[in-house]
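Lab notebook, bench 4. The sequencing result for the construct came back, and we need a structural model before the next group meeting so we can plan mutations. Quick request posted to the team channel:

Model the 3D structure of this chain.
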Amino acid sequence: MVGYGELGSGTTVQVCLVGQNCLAETYLRQLLRADRHFRAMNMKQYMRFSPASRKNMIFLIDQCGLEIPLSECLRQLSEDCQNAKFLVIDYEKSNEEIVRLLVMGAHGFVAHADVSRTLERALMFIVAGHFWVAPEVMHDFMLEVGSALRKGVRSRQTTTRREDEILELVRRRLSNREIAELLQIRVSTVKFHLSNILSKLHANNRRELSAAPAQRTWKMMLQ
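Done. Here's the predicted structure in token form:
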């Protein structure tokens, strides 16, 4: 198998067809035979490869009639094949639906009606490391990714009000027992919150917490 990038004259890209419709699989094989760069196979043939050789594969997934949820299919194939790429084909979908495909891990979408016209070009785009979707879909996808990243940063780095209280008392050099007595909570609860604080502020111990940025600093960084 070959890595993704520019295709040389003798380069062959492995394309595994995933779906339940035998007639659709036969049709897709015929389309791919027209381009010498592609070598089509089904899942049975793919499973004959050794685990070490299962890499740099493009999976052409016919979502119509797929027996398992597409998200689960993508997850399993991603775990089984290193550097896998996914092109999904199905009936016409809205931009929002195609964005959801990208969020799940797909690298492109082709409607059934456009397969004969665009399949080979779509695969070439994906081989070269691009996404095969309309520009407006990619724009919406990037907005979705940006929103998810911002939410992830906040959830990892923003301390709660209770954690702020405990952090302030730690900076005053109070012990866990003293903090528990002052806040009227259990010592085990103090330890639980302290563990979360250490994780969110990327600190290794109480000493480092004394120099950790306060909550207002995190909020300024996230604005």
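The chain has two domains: 13-148, 158-222.
Will bring this to the meeting.
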